[in-house]
Amino acid sequence: MSGILITCAVTGSIHTPSMSPYLPVTADEIAGQALGAAEAGAAVLHLHARDPRTGRPSADPDHFMAFLPRIRAGCDAVLNLSTGGSAIMSLDERLAAPRLAAPEMASLNMGSMNFALYPAAERIETWRHDWEKPFLEGTDDLVFKNTPRDIARILADLGQERGARFEFECYDLGHLYMLRHFADRGLVRPPYFIQFVFGVLGGMGPDPENLTHMVRMADKLFGHDFEFSVLAAGRHQMPLVTMAASMGGHVRVGLEDSLTIARGQLAESNAQQVAKVRRIVEELGRRVMTPDEAREMLGLKGADATAI
Ligand code: KMH
Ligand code: ZN
Q: Ligand 1 centre and the CA of 203: distance in Å?
């Protein structure tokens, strides 16, 4: 029976240090938690960097390179670098580290959108860093930009020139049609690894009907040429990824997407979430994929062909 691919998104750029003491920030923390997640069963590690002094999302290649070689040396997982970075970064900034590292995989957000994080600011009583409150509150007037021109550039720089394959992040139905458009232009090739994203304010909500509809439309637009995975923000994470696993999809967990392990209870590590979803997958009678099975399924170039 085919396996289920677990991606772990280790730190991201949505959550801030005041929200959880377990959010990895330094290179030691990011590398340590990434290796723990791989050990627990994650075949793919989706990675962002942070400034180690403040925990602020960072696009600095030095911050990435402080942990990437350590993760590479310590496990066999596929390293997937974000090209989304954070909505406050320019495309040039977001591309700097992935261009240098030439990873096997990179994320690719299939449209421009609102990315509203400001409701989270209301729940924080004590701030650890000055940047956090304005960063979250400023998202009431911030557009995350990935125009068709941006998408084409990311595909050219990382895909055509460096051989990366993509985690196509689709937050809405329109993003699936944008992926179809790039397929029609011959700029992407199957199998398409589509990551459905639920629960970001600005994208589709975490309703089960949305997932069934997205899968139905992906079937219609891409036939047998795609694999889908699901991530959902906050407390919707485990219910939605369980639904994905039941529907023949793959799953993404990690502290980028949710800081909790159960309602109201902070996850103490990324590995804890990976172990939980692994138990769910196995209880469903399915098997977790190894990194090499993921490479085979997605047609990846292999870790030796990266610059990490
Ligand atoms: N933060 C997630 C909702 C990216 O890194 O390109 C989506 C994400 C974006 O992972
Ligand atoms: Zn990300």
A: 12
